[in-house]
Amino acid sequence: MPMEFIAYGLNHVTAPLSVREKYALEPEKAKEVLARLKSQAPEAVFLSTCNRVEFYCVAKNPENCLEEIRGTLGHFHRLKPAEAKKYFYFYQGVEAFAHLFRVSSSLDSMVVGEAQILGQVKEAYQQSQESGMTGATLNGIFHRAFGAAKRVRSQTEIARMPVSVSSVAVDLARKIFSALSEHPVLLLGAGEMGELTAKYLVDAGVKEFFIANRTLEKARSLAERLGGKALAFSEGLSRIGEVDILLTSLGQGSHAIKRGDLEAVMRNRKGRSLFIIDMGVPRNVDPEAGKLESVYLYNVDNLSAIAEANRGGRQKAVEEAEGILKQEVDGLCAWLSARELAPTIARLREHFEEVRNSKLREFLEKNRDLPEKERKAVERLTHDLIGKLLHDPSVNLKEIPNDSDRFDYARMLNDVFLKTDHSKREQD
User: Fold this and answer.
1) Active-site annotation holder among 50, 57, 65, 333
2) Is 99 helix (H, G, I), strand (E, B) or coil?
3) Is 50 among the residues known to form the active site?
4) Most CB within 10 Å of its CB: which of 27, 47, 171, 259?
5) Final residue before a domain boundary, out of 302, 323, 343
6) Pair 354, 276 in one domain
């Protein structure tokens, strides 16, 4: 009986953070988890991130493997049947392939298009390799998943279309300054949107960060979290000319920074660009300042409009990505069905021959006085009948144009004709 590929787990869609935290496991526990699965899944990958806990297994018997996975979760977390039913999902065969490919390509991520998940899947796969839990089947499946993710990132705009106001701001900063690590940033104020954008900038590579606030203690607290330097508000205003990115997030007061203030600053910058991200509502920076040469001024409305346009573009990119993944899953099914088709047909012929020989022996035992010529005629007739019965299914199976359908039909043949026979052999 052929192995089955299954996926079992939970993610940010099916389970709240409190549940995901409960079932997450440290990387060092991965080997122990995999070892517990080995009896039912000779090939397996365990993936645990802040947004998902998943098992990918090549299983001898999917139902037994599922029980083993639940037992493993129970060993570490006391898995409750009600939680398993409510939060966990189970995929098998083509659906499991498609799920893995969507996960690796970030189509199943909380932020579609993010790059981190592919590295996490690769790391989980490497842990399985080091644990001796990968073989030809799993290697083929995961390498094709990685290839599919690479195609999605290189052939669509899915990773190049930020859809939140803060991520749009960082994307614009990258376009103005190619290497953010070389450009200092000043944050004026400590509003929520300003803090979030500041975190994005730090994650994007900003090294030098100044934070000025009317309450110095708040500036210090935020500087501690971001790894920046706290300044008094007046000092922050005086240092605008020293930075290349100005991020404002002042809670109140319209146009705290006037066009005239920035004209004086820009005269001393000798044409050096200044990117201003105004997160204030009402606006903190005079809109007229955006007309100054080498000043790039964006407010919340500007950034929101770009984000909204990107959402439409990203939806198109998602549709393109889904098309790529369909091609890749079909390719995987073609590879697997090619590996399984010939053995499946051979096992079918063997099974039918066993049935024929068994029934033929019974017939000849009951008709011992049958002449030799007629005995041979009966034997030839049954042999030809089996060949005829199997010929069309064998040819038709090979000619099914859709690879995933061919894979499913090959599995179906095993399930319908060979599963019972296989279990009998194991008992014998």
Assistant:
1) 50
2) helix
3) yes
4) 47
5) 302
6) no
